[in-house]
């Protein structure tokens, strides 16, 4: 079954606003990763956060991980129209050996 | 970071024919690659794990005779959709890694349309 569940399924905001996407999962993990996918393209890695980390930053991206709640969030600050894409979380467990993707959030940033 | 090249990016084929999709690692040796299928506005579904020099490992429900995977070298994995039918129309994506404590690198994806 799908490990990650994301919400919202779709998010529409204005340029300059912040966008927050959430991901929940069901089992223990070794790391959680966030990816971006432009329409009709492959996925691009954004951030990887390990199970012993609580927060990571990369440019305008901030990711948090709460292993007690089995949830993660991705915050994009000062959004731009170019941020319009689908965003996926993916969990990795050593025992499984593969990534399991969430359902994704479709983000639309209006100029 | 690693570069994974996938082609073709788009292919249209007639029902009953076979289509081969290639996934190349351009700057590293990939002993393991992954093949995913993605329906419109949905998530990625892992189809199989491609292992260099050995048989691929298929996920439950994926027909191995339908989706033939070959990983004959450390830089090339191929997915062949045999006797394609319209229901096989989908977006297929390959990736390297994603099986370790590191990021995964994805190909550009292939949009397959079977008519």
- Radius of gyration of CA atoms of chain A, rounded to a whole number: 13 Å
- What is the helix content of chain A? under 10%
Distance between the termini of chain A: 37 Å
Bulk shape of chain A? globular
Q: Summarize the helix and strand pattern of chain B as letters.
A: EEEEEEEEEEE
User: What is the first-to-last residue Cα distance of chain B?
Assistant: 37 Å
Biggest chain pair contact, residues each? A-B, 26 and 26 residues
Q: Structural class given helices, strands, pairing of chain A?
A: mainly beta
Q: Rough shape of chain B?
A: globular
Oligomer state of the chains in this structure:
heterodimer
**Count of DSSP strands of chain A:** 11
Order of helices and strands of chain A: EEEEEEEEEEE
Mean pLDDT of chain A: 93
Low-pLDDT ranges of chain B: none
Computed CA radius of gyration of chain B, to the nearest angstrom: 13 Å
Count of helical stretches of chain B: 0
Q: Report the biggest beta sheet of chain A as strand number plus sense, adding barrel if it closes.
A: 6 strands, mixed
Structure in words:
The complex is a heterodimer of chains A (111) and B (115). Chain A is an all-beta fold. Chain A is 0% helix and 56% strand. Chain A contains no helices and eleven strands. Chain A has strands at 5-7, 10-14, 19-24, 31-37, 43-50, 55-58, 61-66, 71-76, 85-92, 99-101, 105-110. In chain A, the strands form two sheets. In chain A, strands 2, 4, 5, 9, 10 and 11 form a six-stranded mixed β-sheet that branches. Chain A has a five-stranded antiparallel β-sheet with strand order 1-3-8-7-6, with no helix packed on it. Chain B is 0% helix and 51% strand. Chain B has no helices and eleven strands. Chain B has strands at residues 4-7, 10-13, 19-25, 32-38, 44-51, 57-58, 67-73, 76-81, 90-96, 105-106, 110-114. In chain B, the strands form two sheets. In chain B, strands 2, 4, 5, 6, 9, 10 and 11 form a seven-stranded mixed β-sheet that branches. Chain B has a four-stranded antiparallel β-sheet with strand order 1-3-8-7, with no helix packed on it. The radius of gyration of chain B is 13 Å and the shape is globular.
């Amino acid at each position: 079954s799908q490990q990650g569940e994301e919400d919202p399924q779709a998010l529409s905001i204005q340029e300059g606003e912040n966008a927050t996407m959430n991901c929940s999962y069901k089992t223990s993990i070794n790391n959680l990763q966030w990816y971006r996918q432009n329409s009709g393209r492959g996925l691009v890695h954004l951030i990887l956060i390990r199970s012993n980390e609580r927060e990571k930053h990369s440019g305008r991206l901030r990711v948090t991980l709460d292993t007690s709640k089995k949830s993660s969030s991705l915050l994009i600050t000062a959004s731009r129209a170019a941020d319009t894409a689908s965003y996926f979380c993916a969990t990795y467990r050593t025992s499984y050996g593969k990534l399991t993707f969430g359902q994704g959030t479709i983000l639309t940033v209006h100029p | 970071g690693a570069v994974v090249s996938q082609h073709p990016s788009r292919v249209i084929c007639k029902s009953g024919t076979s289509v081969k999709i290639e996934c190349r690692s351009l700057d590293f040796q990939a002993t393991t690659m992954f093949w995913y299928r993605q329906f419109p506005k949905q998530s990625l579904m892992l189809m199989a794990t491609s292992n260099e020099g050995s048989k691929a490992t298929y996920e439950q429900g994926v027909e191995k005779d339908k989706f033939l995977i070959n990983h004959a070298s450390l830089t090339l994995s191929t997915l062949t959709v045999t006797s394609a039918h319209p229901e096989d129309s989908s977006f297929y994506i390959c990736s390297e890694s994603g099986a370790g404590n590191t990021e995964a690198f994805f190909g550009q994806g292939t949009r397959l349309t079977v008519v």
